[in-house]
Design goal:
7 helices; globular; 35% helix; single chain; 252 residues
């Protein structure tokens, strides 16, 4: 496990350097579905990551955003989003990430989320805490929700769920100081983990969007819940523990 962890922290920075040096590829944009895009850089970055993992750990499996699932024989599965925040990336908005989690069976045991534009690496090995650039991080200790900052993301790919979302958005907005949406699920979870925000709520995510960030958040002392939406998507509710029951009530 430690070997895979150290390997991932090195690999994810190499993938980040690739994205920073291949900015032109962000202009090669393809439609996947309504309001869902992939760039040439997404595909090339994922290939860089999976090729390196296959060489180092050939018996491991994969669950990747662009190339899908591949079974392995080791019991380990790599859950990879090569660019979480593709719309940010293709518009030169700096808050995009590379997200890599490792699962043993169905349990996430390692997570790394890297922000290339700011050289910020959030990481965690299960049971050993959460870190930002090797410095330990913790969720916010704020006890007054009215002073807190929340991240709530509208269902930009599922406009049919907008009335449902807006009702809950209104409840959260009235309870906190202010709300942001930064366009990366992995980074949103890491921002809660590091105390930069206290709440994160979003509808309709895939496991590769949140697997690494959710482990980092819980290892930083945060609370996290996912609820199924359809066959392969999930609604995410997360916060520092002192606000979690209130969040569940506001978003029920």
């Amino acid at each position: 496990m430690r070997k895979r962890y150290d390997f991932t922290k090195s690999l994810i920075k190499r993938a980040g350097a690739f994205l920073l040096s291949h900015r032109a590829e962000r202009r090669n944009v393809f439609d996947k579905s309504a309001n869902d895009y992939v760039t040439q850089a997404d595909r090339e970055c994922e290939h860089l990551i999976t090729s390196a993992i296959r060489e180092a750990f050939p018996e491991d499996g994969f669950y990747c955003e662009e190339s899908g699932e591949e079974n392995g024989s080791s019991g380990y599965t790599w859950v990879i989003d090569p660019i979480d925040g593709t719309v940010n990336f293709m518009n030169s908005f700096p808050l995009y990430t590379i997200s890599i989690a490792l699962c043993r069976g169905s349990e996430a045991v390692m997570g790394c989320v890297y922000v290339p534009e700011y050289d910020e690496l959030f990481s965690s090995l299960k049971g050993e805490g959460a870190f930002l650039n090797e410095e330990r991080i913790h969720v916010s200790s704020e006890t007054n929700m009215k002073r807190s900052l929340a991240l709530c993301v509208p269902p930009h790919r599922m406009h049919e769920h907008l009335p449902y979302y807006m009702e809950r958005y209104d409840r959260v907005l009235r309870a906190v100081s202010d709300i942001r949406s930064i366009g990366s699920a992995a980074l949103s979870l890491c921002y809660v983990a590091s105390g930069r925000c206290s709440i994160y709520y979003e509808l309709g995510l895939h496991a590769y969007d949140f697997a690494a960030g959710a482990l980092i958040l819980t290892e930083a002392g945060g609370s996290f819940r996912y609820e199924r939406r359809g066959e392969v998507m999930y609604d995410i509710k997360s916060s520092c523990p002192q606000f979690f029951e209130s969040l569940l009530e506001m978003t029920r």
